[in-house]
Specification:
Elements: H1 3-19, H2 23-31, H3 34-43, H4 47-53, H5 61-64, H6 66-83, H7 95-106, H8 109-115, E1 121-126, H9 133-145, E2 150-157, H10 160-173, E3 184-186, E4 202-205, H11 217-227, H12 244-252, E5 258-259, E6 264-265, E7 268-274, H13 276-279, H14 286-296, E8 300-305, E9 318-324, E10 334-339, E11 345-346, E12 361-362, H15 365-377, E13 384-388, E14 393-400, E15 405-407, H16 411-420, H17 425-435, H18 443-457, H19 463-473, E16 474-476, E17 484-492, E18 495-503, E19 511-516, H20 521-528, E20 537-547, H21 551-554, H22 564-586
Parallel strand pairs: 1-2, 1-4, 2-3, 4-7, 8-10
Antiparallel strand pairs: 5-6, 7-9, 8-9, 10-13, 11-12, 14-19, 14-20, 15-16, 17-18
Length: 587
């Protein structure tokens, strides 16, 4: 049979074969753009050659088995992503990172007890599942450590090829034993939530780093504004150029509540972030409010810092957040920070010591076990720090200083004011005559005198005219008296105790202090601010509570500088070396 005729027959039969599958399977082929690939091979007259190669391998389930087929398919995915490492990080998380996340997710006493019960059933969701690596690893962990329990895994992704890969993997492995491919669904979670009314026991995800949500902005903002905590994004909205914290809110909105009488044990979540979600945004910002929501509800259990250069398309530092509403008793009110940034081995993987794109480091099985054991011990140490939730919070206090103005009328300023308000010529002439041209360092007193003069003249200036007069004839001067705008009377038991002046604040001197929640604001102000700026005061009406997690500060180790004698000796040696080189050049 000629190759051209064989290709035509193969093409016809292959297309017919694909059309014979059920709708959900045909959708996988469609998202792989399989028909386009077949058409290309058909036109190139190589379709028969490619298809015939598969006859050399017996892949029938009775000979290979679903588990082995799944491993073959997973290995192909891994190899493909390693070859395409320039974009692989968009949808492929390194295997050892997934393994560590899964172990952290399932390492809690409540979950261990629940999963050890006969016929235990749990559900897990990855809303950015990519090719399904996290779902597969979670199933593998469950089969190894809790083989009597059943874990149903579900995923969603907006990338068509990644979705098709994950759905095919689920189908081939018969992961959930029913439906399979229908449990991985296609769509953008921000506007097309495929699990709108479902809840889950576990969550795993590695959402894209620094991806903006401008296209979904209107839908997300409307949900935040109109529904608040009744929907997904009630805690706050991060800046539009990084939607990572939206993924976390989306997932956590689907948590199970802790209701022992209803056999509901709560939920646990593990998610990979860059460093940005820990500290981006000041008090009152969307990011800070989301952190506040997690910490004040006592849901953030731990953050684990991973080594740099662990991912295929980025060398930045990454962090695993563990979130749960069923903390063990010893962890309640606490957050564990675990620094594993120096726990790594050179090379892209245990199978390949070469770098794989930006991935130049990996974790061995022993190193993963070391991190998990450190996490499980929940003890203070060089790698592990334990904090109260409130340790990450602060009150942002507005510190004001008084406006100090010097009054002086000059010919040029007088002309400038009258250019704008010529109808006030007589009043200005009277003020000039009464007050003279000498500078005055008490604006409040000066203005009171001007007001008395204007009342005697029967003049009533409008607000804009008054403001313009001050802006033209009053100049900031640190030697001047504070500008008083009013007075308040304090009293106790109906008796006057004191009269306080209300000072006009100087916006240019306004400052802010972040006072830890664990400290008294007034005591902090008296100790840290007053000695340096005695005329300052706090505007407590503008207080804002914020939260940030400064990971580096908590693990910073001070390195004392070298002794001056050692530095001088090295400099002298360098100078002598330079002198010898110059002599060699001139001889």
């Amino acid at each position: 049979m000629g190759s051209s005729r064989a290709t035509r027959i193969t093409y016809k039969h292959l297309v017919s074969y694909i059309k014979g599958f059920s709708g959900n399977v045909r959708r996988i082929f469609e998202y792989f753009e399989f028909d386009t690939e077949i058409e290309k091979m058909h036109e190139a007259n190589i379709l028969y050659l490619v298809v015939s190669k598969f006859t050399d391998v017996d892949l029938h389930p009775s000979n290979v088995g679903n588990e082995q087929m799944g491993h073959i398919f997973e290995n192909l995915i891994r190899r493909f992503n390693e070859l395409a490492n320039e974009t692989a990080g968009d949808h492929f998380t390194p295997r050892e990172v997934i393994t560590l996340m899964v172990h952290l997710l399932f390492t809690d006493s409540v979950g261990e007890k629940f999963l050890s019960q006969p016929n235990a059933i749990a559900r897990l969701l990855d809303p950015a599942c990519g090719t399904g690596g996290m779902l597969a690893e979670a199933k593998s962990y469950m089969a190894k450590y809790h083989d009597d329990a059943t874990l149903y895994v579900y995923g969603q992704d907006y990338n068509k090829r990644a979705f098709a890969t994950a759905a095919a993997d689920m189908l081939m492995k018969e992961v959930n034993k029913a439906g399979g491919a229908d449990d991985v669904r296609f769509g953008d979670i921000f506007i097309e939530d495929q699990f709108p009314s479902e809840s889950f026991d576990y969550f795993l995800s590695n959402p894209p780093f620094g991806v903006d949500w401008k296209k979904q902005q209107k839908v997300v903002e409307d949900e935040h504004k109109n529904f608040g905590f009744d929907k997904r994004f009630g805690a706050g909205l991060p800046r539009v150029n990084d939607g990572a914290l939206l993924f976390l809110q989306h997932m956590w909105s689907k948590r199970e509540d802790v209701k022992p009488k209803e056999h509901k044990e709560g939920s646990r979540l593990a998610i990979v972030f860059s460093g940005s979600p820990m500290f981006t945004g000041g008090a009152g910002s969307g990011e800070s409010e989301i952190r506040r929501w997690l910490l004040e509800n006592d849901w953030l259990e731990a953050i684990v810092a991973l080594p740099e250069s662990m991912f295929y398309n980025t060398g930045i530092g990454t962090y695993i957040w563990v979130v749960t509403n069923r903390k063990e008793k010893r962890r309640k009110g606490k957050v564990q920070l675990l620094d594993a940034r120096d726990v790594w081995t050179a090379g892209g993987s245990e199978d390949s010591k070469r770098s794989l794109g930006d991935k130049r480091r990996h974790m061995t099985v022993a190193q993963i076990d070391e991190v998990v054991r450190t996490y499980g011990r929940f003890e203070e140490g060089p790698r592990s720090k334990i904090f109260d939730n409130a340790d990450f919070g602060y009150t942002r206090v507005t510190v004001e200083r008084p406006l100090r103005l010097r009054y002086q009328m000059t010919t040029d300023d007088k002309a400038r004011f009258l250019d704008a308000c010529p109808h006030l010529l007589d009043d200005v002439q009277a003020i000039d005559k009464a007050l003279g041209r000498e500078p005055r360092l008490d604006w409040a007193e000066t203005w009171e005198e001007i007001e008395r003069l204007l009342r005697r003249r029967g003049s009533r200036w409008k607000g804009p005219e008054t403001k313009l007069f001050r802006s033209v004839f009053a100049t900031k001067d640190p030697a001047a008296q504070p500008v008083i705008v009013g007075r308040v009377t304090g009293s106790v038991a109906g008796r006057q105790t004191r009269v306080d002046s209300l000072l006009d604040p100087d916006p240019d001197l306004r400052d802010f202090e972040n006072v830890p929640l664990t400290e008294d604001v007034d005591a902090y102000f008296e100790r840290e601010v007053k000695p340096h700026v005695p005329d300052a005061w706090m505007d407590r009406s503008k207080n804002k509570v914020g939260y940030e997690i400064n990971f580096n500060r908590h693990f910073y180790v001070f390195t004392p500088p070298r002794a001056l004698a050692d530095i001088d000796r090295d400099l002298k040696a360098a100078e002598d070396h330079i002198v010898r080189l110059l002599k060699d050049l001139t001889t």
